[in-house]
């Protein structure tokens, strides 16, 4: 276990629910997070390609532990400020559960789509590529919303998956999100100096994006290697 505390960011290596239980009421301006998708629970295993390589269909060990959105409603609602916003990346398999747990608790429940222009290719031409990721968006009346024009208001954003040199190689995080996407969401849904929380931060793109945009950051991950990578990434600020 470690925790890091500067004026700009605080990082915690622990279970998300344990950190959430200590955060004061209405203390967070934006929750932007990317919890496990539980895709690995339905996986048929890694796929072997003809060139001898494999496509990682299992994602990671951390994705195999079942996550229940109902466990997060009470604390997400308690810690978010009245004008705050919540963005939660999720998968088709958990979308229904996030909706069931959160829709009735907030004025608005919307879906935002990230279109990856560089999805993992499929050797078989028998399905669509998984080129879109879903983000659940939640807020109440009078929430912060910084739009400049109609074009930015589309619930759709297009950019490549995270690639070298931004992609961290050690530890390799299979679902590292690109900064340009995260910065887009933070810019729209929060203001400078406000606090952004990511209780499933992985290798810390939400933290770096928040600090790039002069917000403050609270991050947490259960995996020590990912926390170390986040700390390394944020120590330049
Ligand atoms: C989808 S990944 C997040 C990736 C992150 N957005 C990034 O770009 O690096 C989900 C993360 O949740 C972490 N995790 C899983 N269960 C957790 C829990 N109970 N509490 C905190 N973190 C957890 C995993 O270690 C993993 O890094």
The CATH H-level homologous superfamily: Vaccinia Virus protein VP39
Give me the secondary-structure category: alpha/beta
Biggest β-sheet strands, sense, barrel:
9 strands, mixed
CATH class designation: Alpha Beta
Can you tell me the residue ranges where pLDDT is under 50 for at least 5 consecutive residues? none
Average per-residue pLDDT, rounded, comes to: 92
CATH topology-level name: Rossmann fold
The name of the CATH architecture is: 3-Layer(aba) Sandwich
> What's the domain count?
1
How many beta-strand elements? 11
Spatial separation of the terminal alpha carbons: 22 Å
Strand order of the largest sheet: 1-2-11-10-3-6-8-7-9
Helix content: 10-25%
Number of helices: 6
Order of helix and strand elements from N to C terminus = EEHEEEHEHEEEHEHEH
- Share of β-strand residues: 15-25%
Shape: globular
Search tags:
9-stranded mixed sheet; alpha/beta; 237 residues; Rossmann fold; 24% helix; two-stranded antiparallel sheet; 6 helices; binds S-adenosylmethionine
Set down the secondary structure blueprint.
Blueprint: E1 3-5, E2 9-12, H1 16-22, E3 28-33, E4 47-48, E5 54-55, H2 70-79, E6 80-90, H3 92-102, E7 108-116, E8 132-139, E9 156-159, H4 179-189, E10 195-198, H5 205-212, E11 216-220, H6 224-234
Parallel strand pairs: 2-11, 3-6, 3-10, 7-9, 10-11
Antiparallel strand pairs: 1-2, 4-5, 6-8, 7-8
Helix pairs in contact: 4-5
The structure holds S-adenosylmethionine.
S-adenosylmethionine (SAM) binds at residues 15-16, 34-36, 62, 173, 175-177, 199-200, 202-203, 205, 220-223, 226.
